[in-house]
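Work Package 3 committed the consortium to producing structural models of liganded targets before the mid-term review. Because experimental data for this complex are still outstanding, the team generated a predictive model from sequence and the ligand definition alone, so that downstream docking and mutagenesis planning could proceed in parallel. The input record is reproduced below exactly as it was submitted to the modelling pipeline, together with the SMILES string for 2-acetamido-2-deoxy-beta-D-glucopyranose.
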Amino acid sequence: MREYNFCAFLITAVVVSQLGSTLAIQCYSCKSSETGEASCLMSPSTQNAEECSNDCYTSVSADGTITRGCLGNDTACSLPSCSSCKENNCNTNIVCKECLGLEECATANMTDAKYNAVCPLLDGTQCVSLVNDNRTVSLSCGSSCANVTCSSCTTSLCNEALYPADRRQCYTCSGTDCDTVAASIATGCSQTDAKCFTTGTSATNMTRGCTSATTDIKCAADSTDPGCLLCDSNLCNSQQYQRDAGSCIICDNCDAQQNASQKQSCDQALYNQTIGCYTLTTGSTVSRGCLNKLEGECSANNSCTSCSDAGCNVAAVDVPFECIACISNEVADCWSATKPEDLPAVKCGNGTCFSGIWNGLGVRDCFSSASQLMQYQCDHNVEGHQCTTCTTLTKCNAKGFSGAASLSQMGVVGLLMALMLALRSSL
Ligand SMILES: *[C@@H]1O[C@H](CO)[C@@H](O)[C@H](O)[C@H]1NC(C)=O
Ligand SMILES: *[C@@H]1O[C@H](CO)[C@@H](O)[C@H](O)[C@H]1NC(C)=O
Ligand SMILES: *[C@@H]1O[C@H](CO)[C@@H](O)[C@H](O)[C@H]1NC(C)=O
Ligand SMILES: *[C@@H]1O[C@H](CO)[C@@H](O)[C@H](O)[C@H]1NC(C)=O
Ligand SMILES: *[C@@H]1O[C@H](CO)[C@@H](O)[C@H](O)[C@H]1NC(C)=O
Ligand SMILES: *[C@@H]1O[C@H](CO)[C@@H](O)[C@H](O)[C@H]1NC(C)=O
Ligand SMILES: *[C@@H]1O[C@H](CO)[C@@H](O)[C@H](O)[C@H]1NC(C)=O
Ligand SMILES: *[C@@H]1O[C@H](CO)[C@@H](O)[C@H](O)[C@H]1NC(C)=O
Ligand SMILES: *[C@@H]1O[C@H](CO)[C@@H](O)[C@H](O)[C@H]1NC(C)=O
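The resulting structure, written out as tokens with the ligand in place, is given here.
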């Protein structure tokens, strides 16, 4: 009887102790506001365990407090702010930043506790930073990754750093105080391939930002609006509405070489105008001036060169010096030269052109091609030849002759003979 009682007692004790062990579990218990983040957040398995009649949990609150412990009977617990589990000391969840494709995921301060999310208890869960297909950024719990658009790390909140670390940054502001920029208005762009923009109508109505911004006033990355100034490097959108445009040599039909001390003011340039000086060669004419006043582009395409220092557009332009070269019986317009640009021309290394009348024919050429007699007649203004020389500009021998062209009665062969004699006879 006593033995039976003892046996019954033993069995009851075993059953009760087994019941007890299935009912009560151990859970890590800590609160980051008391223990500090370093221990409760980062090292849960070093925390004290308490006995719980229910599940274990890990939670984050809006103020950033991490709590681990026993889950109350009717307490709601769901991701991303809370995760529960039923095993002994299972509440070792890591906490990651979670922000899915929103503009602020890339632009705002990810240290804010409102982005903290408890990760589910899956094997290999890490904190992930990812560039989405639409070039936005997402931060979350996830599995490990390591490539050019994704990176992961294993400790809690390790994904709060800027991602990608070299993300485009632009100055962002609008309105009355947006003409000059300061480090405090630098912002990361929400999309990884964003550019910076500047636009506005006055010094008190400027707008700056990333092309990926979703604000009312903005410029798209592919905008063709001339009022939109786009640039593609960090913090490049700092141009003021107006700025001094410097000084340059300004001339039309300029001499080949210029003297920098003759530079003139270029006035003010708008934010969307390039400043600097240009030298533009059109045909054989050189013009120089300020880039902010040049209509159209300055590039190799239109034989234009530019430079940025004050009065820098002085360099000699290598326009080959040419003279109109024709005889009026062969080229109809040679006599009056109404369209000098259409008349034949020759290179003239000597740099002096002439035009004159011999045997009733208008003759134009490089002065060094004329015979010594013709040169003499020209130099001494011998009556009847109307001869002039010029050195200023290429194709300068374009002055029409006075009087009607006296096409001689001689045949063409005779004319040519006479001319060759005139040109060749060297006294
Ligand atoms: C907790 O739940 C159990 C069973 O679901 C119940 O028996 C117990 O009374 C509850 N405790 C509290 C404090 O609500
Ligand atoms: C970009 O993609 C992410 C992930 O697919 C999505 O969450 C987000 O809403 C998208 N954003 C835009 C602006 O399309
Ligand atoms: C980022 O957040 C921290 C903590 O809330 C704050 O001290 C800091 O000033 C913030 N930085 C910026 C740039 O907003
Ligand atoms: C990078 O890894 C992520 C996650 O593993 C994947 O979705 C993505 O396609 C990968 N990207 C490239 C460029 O390999
Ligand atoms: C300010 O600039 C925006 C465009 O950047 C323009 O739409 C708006 O009319 C301007 N406001 C004034 C008062 O000029
Ligand atoms: C600069 O922007 C204004 C509008 O703000 C526009 O009228 C002008 O054409 C632009 N100038 C250039 C050189 O793009
Ligand atoms: C340039 O012009 C200044 C002032 O007119 C003159 O003093 C200087 O000698 C000139 N220089 C050259 C190289 O012609
Ligand atoms: C020059 O012309 C070519 C061909 O028309 C064009 O592709 C190129 O973009 C032009 N370059 C500039 C600087 O305008
Ligand atoms: C060009 O040639 C003429 C005659 O041969 C000569 O008088 C003149 O000095 C020369 N001019 C130059 C710039 O060489």
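Reviewers should note the following from the model. DSSP finds six helices and 32 strands in the chain. These observations will guide the Year 2 experiments.
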